[in-house]
Design goal:
By secondary structure, the protein is an alpha/beta fold. Helix content is about 35%, strand content about 25%. It folds into three domains: about 5-90, Rossmann fold (3-Layer(aba) Sandwich), CATH 3.40.50; about 95-305, Mur-like, catalytic domain (UDP-N-acetylmuramoyl-L-alanine:D-glutamate ligase, 3-Layer(aba) Sandwich), CATH 3.40.1190.10; about 310-445, Mur ligase, C-terminal domain (Protein-Tyrosine Phosphatase, Chain A), CATH 3.90.190. It contains 17 helices and 20 strands. The strands form three sheets. The protein has a nine-stranded mixed beta sheet, with helices on one face. Strands 15-16-20-17-18-19 form a six-stranded mixed beta sheet, sandwiched between helices.
Length: about 450
């Protein structure tokens, strides 16, 4: 019997992980990347004798595939993808491919914001009592972990791009945190398309599976009304009592599943802000479903450390607090950041705009922001939008300069906040690179 040919587009973490798993499962594997494959990944491919190419796509070696795994970064409108689909070759994401080779219980977490925090927090609670891996958009790829670790449980952080290419993938527990306009450039600028994409996380679920979601998010509630899912629903809310699910009662989270109730005081939760109370509700609901003890859930919420690049307090210099929120790659994430600011703020913003509407930030900018530093290749939209709202608005293309300007503009008691509301690819490798450069520049002041 001839081997099935697995072609992988993109030689990053998910691509190389899939290549290793594919080879181990008897596929003939070929990895092709239009850009340069990082040296560390090249070495893995060479060491495992996996066929690869970079800086080009050889069509003859791709269009003879039985199955194609494409990196989530490659849009469907790319000509090569169109050709692959036209030939009827199935295109899958890494989570779809890898999930075929594990019997594990899967918790899938998606949403426009808070995915990383909630996935990390959920893993933090579960690992106290269960054999559990953390993958998806975080750390080692899901495929690689299925091959090397074979955990009994996985917490997966899943983006809409990964969900676009699932066929049979089904998490036992799905979490949908929120849906706000993001990545609309990938969805023909139609919010409806992006909403449908997020809801794919529940498309294969049955009544034995669970969907945990934000009952305060009108977009989610509306969509569920008109497009019911099969899953058992467990909502969470900050404003209304919930019979089966979680809600905020005074300063306590009340979580009930099948008449079994846990009460947790929010005052003790390590993460601050309303959005983090919601993230804690979602993570606790998952833990409660998986039979983690109440005491363990409470303790884990109390000792959890925040995620890097997400409202991360870097240093205080001359009584000015510098905060790294580089992970805020859309307006809604920056909304949470500005909402949580209690001091006058010098705000560093900008990057690759994904069709942003900045209107929801206006009240915070008027109330809290004393100066804006635009850090991007093209800052015109930001200058036009916020120019009249603040006394000082300056643009630069260099992180070090942005931080030096912020240092000059801030005075005792202020905060300097990097919360870009945009993608990072114009000046940086990724949001981590942007966040690290910010932290280095602050430390070098």
């Amino acid at each position: 019997m001839t081997k099935q040919r697995l072609v992988i587009l993109g030689g990053g973490e998910s691509g190389v992980g899939t290549a290793l798993l594919g080879k181990a499962k008897g596929y003939e594997v070929f990895v092709s990347d239009k850009g340069k494959i990082k040296e560390k990944y090249k070495q893995v491919l060479i060491h495992n004798e996996i066929d690869w190419e970079d800086e080009s796509h050889t069509e003859s070696k791709i269009l003879n595939a039985d199955i194609v795994m494409k990196s989530p970064g490659i849009p469907d409108k790319v000509e090569l993808i169109k050709q692959i689909r036209k030939k009827g070759i199935p295109v899958v994401s890494e989570i779809e491919f890898a999930s075929k080779f594990t019997e594990a219980t899967i918790v899938g977490i998606t949403g426009s914001n808070g995915k990383t925090t909630t996935a990390t927090l959920t893993h933090h609670i579960l690992k106290e009592a269960l054999n559990v891996g953390l993958a998806g958009n975080i750390g080692d790829s899901f495929a690689k972990q299925v091959l090397e670790e074979d955990f009994k449980n996985y917490v997966l952080e899943i983006s809409s791009f990964q969900l676009d290419d699932i066929i049979d993938f089904k998490p036992n527990i799905a979490v949908l945190l929120n849906i706000t306009p993001d990545h609309l450039d990938r969805y023909d600028y139609k919010f409806e398309n992006y909403i449908k994409s997020k809801f794919r996380i529940a498309m294969n679920q049955t009544k034995d599976d669970y969907l945990i979601y934000d009952a305060d998010d009108e977009v989610i509630v509306e969509h569920l009304k008109n497009n019911p899912v099969q899953s058992t629903l467990l909502p969470f809310s900050l404003v209304k009592p919930i019979k089966n699910g979680a809600y905020l009662d005074n300063e306590n989270i009340r979580l009930t599943i099948n008449n079994n109730e846990i009460i947790m005081p929010t005052a003790k939760i390590k993460l601050e802000g309303n959005h983090n109370t919601k993230n804690a509700m979602a993570a606790s609901t998952v833990a409660h479903l998986l039979k983690i003890r109440k005491q363990t859930i409470r303790e884990s919420l109390e000792n959890f450390q925040a995620v890097e690049h997400r409202l991360e307090e870097v240093l205080k210099i001359n009584k000015v607090q510098y905060i790294n929120d580089s992970k805020a790659t859309n307006v809604n994430a920056t909304y949470y950041a500005l909402e949580s600011m209690s001091a006058p703020t010098v705000w560093i913003v900008g990057g690759v705009d994904k069709g942003n509407n900045y209107e929801e930030l206006f009240p915070f900018v008027n109330e809290k922001v004393k100066a804006i530093i635009c850090l991007g290749v093209d800052n015109e939209k930001l200058m036009n939008t916020f120019g009249n709202m603040v006394d000082v608005i300056i643009e630069t293309q260099y992180m070090q300069e942005a931080v030096k300007i912020a240092y000059k503009l801030s005075e005792s008691g202020d905060s300097v906040l990097l919360s870009p509301a945009c993608a990072s690819f114009d000046l940086f490798e990724n949001y981590e690179d942007r966040g690290r450069q910010f932290k280095d520049a602050v430390r070098n002041l």
